Amino acid sequence: MKRLIRQALVLFAALTIVCGVLYPAVVTLIAEAAFQNKANGSIIEGNKGSRLIGQKFTDAKYLIGRPDDGSPSNLNPASSDMKKLVAKRVNFFHQLDPSNKKQIPIDLVTSSASGVDPNISTQAAAYQVDRIAKVRDMSPALVEKIIKNHTTNRALGFMGEPVVNVLGVNLELDQN
Questions:
Q1: pLDDT tens column, 36-53
Q2: Mean pLDDT throughout 104-116?
Q3: What pLDDT, on a 0 to 100 scale, did the predictor assign at position 42?
Q4: What is the CA radius of gyration of the chain?
Q5: Contact 150, 172 (CB under 8 A)
Q6: d(CA 175, CA 63)
Q7: 128 — pLDDT class (breaks 50, 70, 90)
Q8: Given a cut of 80, is residue 70 above it in pLDDT?
Q9: For the residues of 14-59, what is the DSSP string, one character each?
Q10: How far is 174 from 89, CA to CA, in rounded Å?
Q11: Which of 125, 108, 136 shows the shortest CA–CA distance to 163?
Q12: How far is the CA of 115 from the CAs of 53, 111, 112, 159, 172, in angstroms?
C-alpha cells in the first residue's frame, strides 16, 4: 500500500511539473515570440485599454460602439424587454445628434453576444461621421479617413464583414 501511495505522489508531482509549469511556460514563450501583440492582450500604452475589448464611449465627440449597459444580450428580439432597451438606445442617439435623421444601424442599439465587442460595422461608423466632425470642428473627410485607418476588411477576402475598431478611431481622433 505504501508503495502505491508513493508511486501516486511521484506521478502527481511529475504531472504537476509537466502540465502546470513546463507546458504553460513553453506555450507562453512560443506565443510571446510568434504573436507578441495578441499574447499580451493588445494593451494600449497609458492605461487606455485593449484593442480587443470594447470600451464605453458616450461623449458626442467620440465614435460610439455597441452598447454596454450591463443588459443581457440573449433577450428574444421580440420580447418587450428587448424592445424597451432598443427604444432607450435609439432615444440616446436621437438626443446625442438630433439633426441626424438617418436610420440607426442595428449594432448601435443591440449588444454583442459577449458584451465586449470592440468593433462596429462600417455603416455604424458612417452614421456617426457628421456628428463627430461637427463637435470636433473637423472636416467629415478627415473623420472618414481616420475611420478608414482603423477598418479591418473581411478575413481572407470573403469571411465576415468589414469592421471598425472603436478604440483605435477614438485614440486617433484625440491626437488630431
A1: 766 666 666 655 666 777
A2: 82
A3: 64
A4: 23
A5: yes
A6: 14
A7: very high
A8: no
A9: HHHHIIIIIHHHHHHHHHHHH-HHHHTT-EETTTTEETTS-----S
A10: 25
A11: 125
A12: 9, 6, 5, 22, 24
Average pLDDT score, the chain: 86
Cell numbers at 62, concatenated: 467620440
pTM, two decimal places: 0.71
Looking only at the bridges linking them, the beta strands covering 49-50 and 163-165 are unpaired
C-alpha cell at 35: 504573436
Reduce the DSSP state of residue 94 to 3 states and report it.
helix
Helix (H, G, I), strand (E, B) or coil at 120: strand
Residue 66: Cβ-neighbour burial (10 angstroms; 0-12, 13-18, 19+): buried
Q: Is the pLDDT of residue 71 over 70?
A: no
Cα distance between residue 161 and residue 170, in whole Å:
21
- Count CB neighbours of 11 within 10 A: 10
Residue carrying the nine cell digits 452614421: 127
pLDDT for res 145: 95
Residue 157 has pLDDT above 90, yes or no: no
| Cell numbers placing 23 | 507546458
What the block records as the C-alpha cell of 131 is 456628428
4 — phi, psi (to 5°)?
-65, -45
DSSP state of 159: B
Tell me the sheet residues that pair with 35: none
